[in-house]
């Protein structure tokens, strides 16, 4: 009994067609048929009913199928364990990232990883925290840098990379620029500038306003903190930003202390909860965590 025979049998069972199975495993249809016949002779039983328009499992084939899946899964785990031990990582990894200060470091991270593991193909994608968390949960993205508010995203295992306070800021000509600490209710009198819904920063801000019993009007949304900085600097409203962005632009922004709600948000390296990353993705996770953590 050979592994390729089990792989071909599984392909035919799932595709219900020798032709489609052959295309899936990248061999000819006669090759698939011959190998499965050899497997059936070895077992002494027919596994497939070939009499109809669709290939169907026989009773014996249906009983064998779960064991075939388990055997192939075990072999995949064995190969992964060998790769982990020997460092012969290969394959593919899909990495996602929100627009952030860390995302600007991704080229350095990717370059270092590619130098160490030249046989691994890396795909990069960008999106909102909401989009990326769903992509990780569904398996379309292996590892992603996402925003993390007070509650970590459901269905994900997250390693925190940054955790910092959020503060309000205005341009130097804004009425609040000369104020000291202002009550939270004061925000309802001004336009708010925030990241869009679905981002961790926005979720943290909305939770803080709800806790304070206020409902500020969000007049401007932008997907990148740098755009929020420019909008606030031009006097268009009160921006909610990670503190580092405000401290880095003292010539453009004035921080505003809000009494009551305390806002925090961070960035984390996320993977699907309870699942083992493939060797390539696992190696990238470790590499990125070491450089960005």
TrEMBL record:
Pfam families recorded: HTH_1 (PF00126), LysR_substrate (PF03466)
Transcription regulation found in the keyword field: yes
Family per similarity comment: Belongs to the LysR transcriptional regulatory family.
Gene3D superfamilies: 3.40.190.290, Winged helix-like DNA-binding domain superfamily/Winged helix DNA-binding domain
Keyword Transcription regulation included in the entry's annotation: yes
Protein name: Transcriptional regulator, LysR family
Species assigned in the record: Streptomyces globisporus
Keywords attached to this entry: DNA-binding, Transcription, Transcription regulation
SUPFAM superfamilies: Periplasmic binding protein-like II, Winged helix' DNA-binding domain
Segments forming domain HTH lysR-type: 1-58
CDD domains documented for this protein: PBP2_LTTR_substrate
PANTHER family (UniProt xref): HTH-TYPE TRANSCRIPTIONAL REGULATOR YBHD
Lineage top rank: taxon: Bacteria
Coiled-coil annotated residue ranges, if any: none
PROSITE patterns: HTH_LYSR
């Amino acid at each position: 009994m050979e592994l390729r025979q089990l792989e071909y049998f599984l392909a035919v069972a799932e595709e219900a067609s020798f032709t489609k199975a052959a295309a899936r495993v990248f061999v000819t249809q006669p090759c698939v048929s011959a190998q499965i016949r050899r497997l059936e002779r070895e077992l002494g039983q027919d596994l497939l009913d070939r009499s109809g328009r669709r290939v169907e499992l026989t009773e014996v084939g249906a009983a064998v199928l779960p064991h075939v899946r388990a055997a192939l899964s075990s072999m995949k785990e064995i190969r992964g364990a060998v790769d982990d031990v020997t460092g012969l990582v290969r394959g593919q990894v899909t990495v996602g990232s929100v627009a952030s200060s860390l995302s600007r470091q991704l080229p350095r991270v990717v370059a270092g990883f590619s130098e160490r593991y030249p046989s691994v193909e890396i795909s990069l994608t960008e999106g909102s925290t909401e989009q990326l968390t769903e992509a990780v949960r569904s398996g379309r993205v292996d590892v992603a840098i996402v925003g993390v508010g007070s509650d970590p995203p459901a269905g994900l295992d997250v390693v925190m990379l940054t955790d910092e306070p959020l503060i309000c800021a205005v341009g130097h000509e804004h009425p609040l620029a000369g104020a000291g600490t202002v009550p939270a209710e004061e925000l309802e009198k001004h336009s708010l500038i925030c990241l869009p819904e679905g981002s961790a920063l926005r979720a943290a801000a909305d939770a803080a306003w709800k806790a304070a019993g206020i409902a500020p009007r969000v007049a401007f949304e932008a997907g990148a903190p740098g755009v929020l900085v420019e909008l606030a600097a031009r006097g268009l409203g009160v921006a909610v930003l990670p503190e580092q962005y405000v401290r880095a632009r003292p010539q453009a922004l004035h921080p505003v202390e809000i009494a009551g709600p305390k806002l925090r948000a961070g960035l984390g390296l996320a993977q699907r909860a309870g699942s083992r990353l493939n060797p390539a993705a696992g190696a990238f996770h470790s590499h990125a965590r070491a450089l960005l953590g």
